[in-house]
Amino acid sequence: MAGLTCWIDASAGIAGDMLLGALLDAGASLDAVREAVEAVAPGEVTISTEQVVRHGMRATKAHVSPTHHDPVPELVEGHHHDHAHEHRAWVDIERMIRTAGLPKAVRDHSLAVFERIAVAESRAHGVPVSEVHFHEVGAWDSIADIVGGCAALHSLGVERIVVGDLSVGSGTIRMAHGELAVPGPAVAELSIGLVVQPGPAKTELATPTGVAFVAGQDQGAMPAMTVRATGTGAGTKDFPHHANVVRVVLGQEQSIGGAGRLSVLECNVDDLDPRLWPGILDALLAAGAKDAWLTPILMKKGRPAHTLHVLTDDPERLRPLVFRHTTTLGIREVLVDRTALERRWVPVNIEGHVVQVKQGLLDGEVMTSQPEFRDVQALAAALDIPEAEALRRVNVLAAQGSSDATR
């Protein structure tokens, strides 16, 4: 299952072990998870799963057990607090992950998730990122949750994460730094840019390891997709009034009614011979870009330049081509929603010469009709008439035959 979107239902909260359980329940490889965690923390933890029930809902509980250490007291969901337990600095965790024999995608994703937590802890406690020590998430179990979760996503072929409603809880919790209001400092920092809600219980429902997975990701309702798998992961507690679970839905996104999500790659270029641009645009279109165009701009010191725009549903493929064909040092990328008309090609025959006409339809009605201009030019040359006359003839015949034209 390649190129999947993972929609995460965090309406009951989210923690790293809950998400890991949901991904394993959805079919992620437990062996791949164990191998990844073993590569980072050899011989330190064991990972197992258990089928449990949370408020009447079946779910998979992911258990991460230390191999050599005493169990760590659990005071709140997903948080372990014991000053005697081994704490680890961000620089140590970064080194462990970078030097581990992990697939590149798993390594990069694990580093990104941990770095989000490090930056949040840095802001929350007023220390440089390099001096952050993970009192809450530096234990082996949390390293396993993050590295294991990234390995699970990789094994499922997930390329995009979307989070729905995100509940963080309310009330107060006792943490290593004392009694604090929910959400805790790290969760609050990680939630910047996300829409959060208190949720169904007056306690902590979201932990740094869980929120770090969805921080910076898209948020909203489940995208239109062909569903390939679902999974439910359990938290440790069984609350009396709601199921303490995280759900995931994995699928391949589809366009419904001409709507779809695409990426726009952009870069500003002021040092390229402008005679090269037509060939660059042709190369990008030939490589599968949905569209490619230029915008004239004026850069610093009055230098004329162009912004290159590339509309694509495959940014991974197009991004290297932009670097290869232009002189840019960086590419911006934004997600856009596109609504497109249904399209069809209609052949128009004029004196034995075929011109293809592209039509756009809305609910079966022709909204736009445009001949392929290269065909128009060929027709004009063949009949020895002006291109304007050839275009007029094609448009007249296309309009006459559009109602019963075949695709």
SSE blueprint:
Elements: E1 4-10, H1 16-25, H2 30-40, E2 45-54, E3 57-66, E4 74-76, E5 79-80, E6 88-89, H3 90-99, H4 104-125, E7 133-134, H5 140-156, E8 158-167, E9 172-175, E10 178-181, H6 185-190, E11 196-197, H7 208-214, E12 218-219, E13 225-234, E14 245-253, E15 259-269, H8 277-286, E16 291-298, E17 304-312, H9 315-325, E18 332-339, E19 342-350, E20 353-362, E21 365-371, H10 373-383, H11 387-401
Parallel strand pairs: 1-8, 8-11, 8-12
Antiparallel strand pairs: 1-14, 2-3, 4-5, 6-7, 9-10, 13-14, 15-17, 15-18, 16-17, 19-20, 20-21
Helix pairs in contact: 1-5, 1-7, 2-5, 3-4, 4-5, 4-7, 10-11
Walk me through what this model shows:
Helices cover 32% and strands 34% of the residues. The chain is of the alpha+beta class. Strand 19 (342-350) and strand 20 form a beta hairpin.
Report the major sheet: 6 strands, mixed
Q: Calculate the mean pLDDT score and round it.
A: 87
Helix content: 25-40%
**Which oligomeric form is depicted?**
single chain
Tally of DSSP helical segments? 11
- Estimated structural class: alpha+beta
Shape: elongated
The low-confidence parts are 70-85, 402-407
Gyration radius, rounded: 27 Å
Quick overview of this protein structure:
The protein has eleven helices and 21 strands. With 407 residues, the chain is α+β, with helices and mostly antiparallel strands.
Write a concise keyword list for the protein shown above:
six-stranded mixed beta sheet, four-stranded antiparallel beta sheet, 32% helix, alpha+beta, elongated
